[in-house]
Design goal:
The complex is a heterodimer of chains A (290) and B (295). Chain A has 290 residues and is mainly α. The longest helix of chain A is centred in the first third of the chain and has 31 residues. In chain B, 75% of the residues lie in helices and 0% in strands. The two termini of chain B are 23 Å apart. Classes of the chains: A mainly alpha (290), B mainly alpha (295). At the A-B interface, helix 2, helix 4, helix 5, helix 6 and helix 7 of A face helix 2, helix 4, helix 5, helix 6 and helix 7 of B. Chain B: Belongs to the binding-protein-dependent transport system permease family.
């Protein structure tokens, strides 16, 4: 009795691990169990064989197209958010007057929420909104540009909600890079471009990959704004909308679970690709931590 | 000295130095220009909602015909906002409290100990954050409905815990790693049990971290749409969900009262965020660094 307890304690297993139990019970009961429940449900369609709901999704071009539509919105939006965050965060490093103010200003859009963003985009970018009025008044266009109730409306709402988040993360990773490394390179005669591409960027790459993944998750699960500022029947019928309709409009839970599984699978494939690319870069400490 | 000159990259000629100045300056200007353009448009987006929520009638003109505050009163009555806000607060407080109770001990073990299967457990805690809420939300809502737990407060709270507990674990781990383990060893040497160490030694030291993750979970929960949307019943809607319904049913209600409601929601979030920023330095969320590393 005491013998195996001792052996386990040597490998790090002892009573303290009980502290993990509530969290494990929670994650098993509320995440893993529902997930596997959904997975088995998706193989028990109301009619047909175990894979018929998957076949139904992939044989219907209207349904299958939602994957492509979602990726076409989410990938560019996430990419833009991360890429735009890098130069801005690069300028925000170090100390300067008003840094806290600018950071706060860049973070505040997080509070806007989907609905205010949607209402604002409809008001501001709509055919009679200020944006089109300014363009018309400046004679840049002859008739109002259509920017709402289509792809662009959803895209803009993803940029507004996603950019502050991406910026915060990139700034945080960037301030974790030891500035003395760049100073050392400068004394060796590297110009700013060389310093950026040879030192900062490689060190930042893992952080950028993480940021991209998290922003992509946000953009990929776009749902309310696809309805509110998009065109939910056509151009912006994203996959979460298809899953929602199957579950709560047709009450076909097996089919809805199948769509949810496909959605999770596609998303995890993209994340796995990004993380696999990330592992090809330097993954050690960036000098700032510890 | 000779070896250094041999290995270093060829010294830049004088022209590079001049070009650097020319390219660096416009780059800075472009960056700030883009930032300002983004902000101007954002300002337009926010201001158009704000102006509209105070406007009497606003059709094809630059500004509304007249101004009134009546939309706020109307939104307050029409959407039973008091009840909705009370529900939102109840849900958020419950989610924050429970996720701290479950998450902090787990974060402690994951930060301090190494044991077989730790990486697997960590991955399991990471997954709810990496998955879109709809993906696990639909099966979760189905399960909760099966047990009669959805359609009311308990369903909303349980569903919102799914991303919150892992979030607490992930944000607390670096805070715990910063505490010197020798403090705990000293307490144990003096005869303190695990419970005493936790309550008398660790918790006071962890207060800043606990506050930080509590506020972040609070902001997330107030803003979480999908999970609440999938599990809420008629009297367990939070503010975001009520707003969504009021907006997607537009045409029935005046647009201005939806605008007014959106302004109420955003001011609430803004207060939360300003409070949060007092406790959390936003640049230190993922890497705990000193502002000026001394090297």
């Amino acid at each position: 009795m005491a013998h195996w307890q001792h052996r386990l304690a040597e490998r790090g297993v002892d009573r303290q691990l009980w502290l993990l139990v509530p969290a494990l019970v929670f994650v098993i009961a509320l995440f893993l169990y529902p997930f596997f429940y959904g997975l088995t449900l998706s193989f028990q369609p109301t009619d047909g064989g175990p894979f018929s709901d998957y076949a139904r999704f992939f044989s219907d071009s209207y349904e299958r197209g939602t994957i492509w539509i979602t990726l076409r919105i989410a990938l560019p939006a996430a990419l833009l958010n991360v890429l735009a965050a890098v130069p801005i965060a690069y300028r925000m490093r170090g100390r300067f007057r008003g840094k806290r103010l600018v950071t706060t200003l860049l973070v505040v859009p997080i509070t806007l929420g989907t609905v205010l963003t949607a209402q604002g985009l409809l008001n501001f970018l709509g055919p009679t909104g200020w944006f089109n009025r300014i363009l018309l008044a400046a004679n840049l266009v002859d008739e109002p540009v259509r920017l709402t109730h289509n792809y662009w409306g959803v895209f803009f709402s993803l940029v507004i909600t996603g950019f502050p988040f991406a910026f915060l993360l990139v700034l945080s990773y960037l301030s974790g890079i030891d500035p003395t490394l760049e100073r050392a390179a400068a004394t060796l005669g590297a110009d700013w471009r060389r310093r950026f591409t040879r030192i900062t960027l490689p060190l930042l790459m893992p952080g950028l990959a993480t940021t991209f993944c998290l922003t992509f998750v946000l953009a990929f699960s776009v749902f309310p704004s696809a309805v509110l500022v998009g065109n939910p029947a056509g151009e912006t019928r994203v996959i979460s909308l298809a899953a929602y309709q199957a579950a709560y409009e047709q009450y076909d839970y097996p089919y809805a679970s199948a769509i949810a599984m496909i959605m999770g699978f596609v998303e995890l494939v993209i994340i796995a690709l990004v993380l696999a690319a990330r592992s090809r870069f330097y993954t050690g400490s960036t000098g700032g931590k510890g | 000295m000779a070896t250094i000159t041999r290995t270093r990259p060829s010294p830049p000629p004088a022209t590079t130095d001049r070009r650097r100045r020319i390219t660096a300056r416009p780059a800075a200007w472009i960056v700030w220009g883009v930032v300002i353009f983004f902000f101007l448009n954002l300002l337009g987006v926010v201001a158009s909602v704000l102006v509209s929520s105070f406007g009497q009638r606003w059709f094809d003109t630059w500004l509304p015909d007249g101004y009134t505050t009546s939309w706020y009163g109307r939104a307050w009555d029409e959407f039973a906002l008091l009840q909705v806000i009370v529900v939102t607060l109840e849900v958020s407080v419950l989610v924050v409290g429970l996720s701290l109770l479950i998450g902090v001990p787990a974060a402690y073990v994951l930060a301090r100990r190494s044991f077989p299967g730790k990486r697997l457990i960590f991955l399991v805690f990471l997954l709810p954050i990496l998955m879109p809420p709809i993906t696990y939300g639909i099966p979760l809502a189905t399960v909760l409905y099966k047990f009669g737990l959805a359609g009311n407060m308990s369903g909303v709270v349980l569903a919102n815990l799914v991303p919150s507990v892992p979030f607490v674990i992930l944000t607390m781990t670096p805070f715990i790693e910063q505490i010197d383990p020798r403090i705990e060893s000293a307490a144990r040497m003096c005869g303190a049990g695990l419970r005493t160490v936790f309550l008398r030694v660790l918790t006071p030291l962890l207060v800043p971290g606990i506050l930080a993750s509590a506020i972040l979970v609070l902001v997330r929960t107030v803003g979480m749409f999908e999970l609440t949307f999938l599990t809420a019943g008629p009297d367990s809607q939070t503010l975001v969900v009520a707003l969504y319904y009021s907006m997607s049913a537009s045409g029935i209600r005046a647009q201005q009262s939806v605008d007014a409601m959106a302004v109420i929601y955003t001011s609430m979030m803004l207060v939360l965020l300003v409070v949060a920023l007092r406790y959390v330095n936003p640049t230190q969320l993922v890497a705990q660094v000193k502002e000026d590393p001394e090297h």
